[in-house]
Amino acid sequence: MITWFYFVVFLLSLIMTGGFLLKNKKVDSMFIFFSIMVSINCLGRYMVASAVNLEMALLANVFLYLGGCYAPLLTVMVLTRLCNLKMPVIIKTLLILYSTVIMALVLTIGKSDIYYKHVELGYGNGYNYLIKTYGPLHKLYPFMMVLYAIIMLLYICVAFKKRNQISVRLVSIISITGFSIFFMYILERIISTDISFLALGYLVGIAFMTRYFDRINMYDISTNISSTLEKMNDYGYIVFDDKYRYVNSNDYIKRLFPEINDWLVDKEVIASDSYLYKECVMYLMNWNGEESSPKIINVGDGYYQLGIRHIPYGKRVSVGYLLEFTDRTLEKKYYNTIEEYNVIMEKEVAEKTEEIRQQQKRMKDLFERTVTALSEAVDAKDRYTSGHSKRVAKYARMIAERLGKSKEEQEEIYRAGLLHDIGKIRVPAEIINKPGKLTDDEFNIIKIHPVTGYHILSGISEDSYIAIAAKYHHERYDGKGYPNGLAGKKIPEIARILGVADSYDAMASNRSYRNALPQEVVRTEIEKGKGTQFDPDIADIMLRMIDEDKEYSMKQTDSMHRSILSVDDEAMNNKIIAHIMKDEPMYEVVSAGGGREALALLSERAFDLILLDVKMPEMDGLETLKLIREKSDVPVVLMTSDKTLDISTEFEEYGCDDYITKPFFPMLVKEIVHNMTERADS
């Protein structure tokens, strides 16, 4: 039975050793030697129990001592590595020499009495055992066991002292395993049993050593990492095992994060609100194992790139993690400087862009006002067709929208409409305003206005689009137009659009000799002109616009009648104003003798313009103007006989639009009246 016990122990040691070596392809010689020594020790006990003679039993005893002499030595070597200590060469040599001397003494058994005085083979209970009497030098073996026990105890003390650098748990487990073998040896000596319990002790030893090999190896890897990277002055690292337990770190990272000095080796880091835990440890624990964008952390004045790497070993992809801290302070400060510079530049660019945008807006507004002013200058020559250019521009834009033109194109077509008749500046006003039929010579003068307009606009615009529109807007689709007799699609599209819009407004507007034509008449004329006077596609769009305009709102809605209120305490001045305007039948002049009378009239009816004397008794002109502005925005022109009076400062405050000085200059009065009433309509 005992023989089988030893056999099973030996078999288990072989199985554990073989399995350990198969599992770990990379195993250093110390672990291989330890496993072999323990297996040989177990084999020796089995061979003694099954020996057929003393010679065979003594040979088996040699195998037994091989494990007994060198396994404790290897255990001490493992503990030395775990405690990050370097055993002096002299001590290591003496320990190896000590174990070797004992092995040499074992070989003298049966030949000398210095180790065993007497030895014989005994038998009982079905197994063999050695009956021995120890010689004087046998004391060296128990002394060796005591020596190794003391060394292991010292290593436990070192581990507790450096528990934030050394795994106390692992050192304690390995040391306790060694102690158990020592105590089993003492127990055997005390009870003098023939059965050796040391076989179980060594079996437990190999079990623990193989079980914790990965942990021991983890610290070896950490030590190798430390020795490799310690000389890097701008690099910190922390080593964790695969269960996120702290293993090791270098001095660089400990200076950066002093709290690491309180971490315990082989223990999980205690959760806290510290920057290191929240930004670094949690970053590691949440890592999915895939390469990701580097994380930059800020510690004090420094910036560090945080990286994670697996620590591979043998066939295992990972036995732990390397948390790396690479100093990127100089780079980050450089990038920050660049970013700050970029922010400054972006701000300056934004400011300059806004300045340019505002300048462009001002230029565009100025251009728009200039275009509008030019169109009004043309329309001013014919008071009975006031607003013609604006209406043509509006209708042209409506057509362009239905043609699918962009907003920018629509606006450009609108501007072209405003300026299409700019060439009429060269045409005498008496021809433009002639109520009857024009002579051939007069009509020929009219026909030059497109060319005049083209050359005027070519000089003030970089884009020839508007100039071309002015030149060809009187061309006909059948080629019978002027000035060049173009036909069909040869006529620029913008001119074809304006041709329809211009003709429509001519019929839908008031003239000196007639009012706007009825809508059905206008529609009939547009229909008749399709394919002859007008582009048929554009004419069809105009016809649809007419059909949709049920209320005939697309016509000149400007009243041919203008009401003017002349307010002056001197009745003669009111009569002079009425006399000046008597040859202008579209203007009606109503007189008021003071401010209160003027306000009363304003409450009863609307006026297109108010001429208001500045100095009046009871209520002067400025006070009257202030009350007028509370109710109406009707244009107001002040009248004064004081040529030294500067009322321009009162314009903005009271809302005065212009002023006239007395005595009145008739042509000036007419011009102001006309312009002020037309501005109100626009």
Any overview of this molecule?
The chain has a 5-stranded antiparallel β-sheet with strand order 4-3-7-6-5, sandwiched between helices. A 5-stranded parallel β-sheet has the order 9-8-10-11-12, with helices on both faces. Helix 2 (about 30-50) runs antiparallel to helix 7 (about 200-210) and helix 16 (about 450-460) runs antiparallel to helix 17 (about 465-470). The chain is α/β, with parallel strands linked by helices and about 675 residues long. It has helices spanning about 1-25, 30-50, 55-80, 90-105, 140-160, 170-190, 200-210, 215-230, 250-255, 275-285, 330-380, 390-400, 405-420, 430, 440-445, 450-460, 465-470, 495-505, 520-530, 535-550, 570-580, 595-605, 620-630, 650-655, 665-680, and strands spanning about 115-125, 125-135, 235-240, 245-250, 295-300, 300-315, 315-325, 560-565, 585-590, 610-615, 635-640, 660. The protein is rod-shaped.
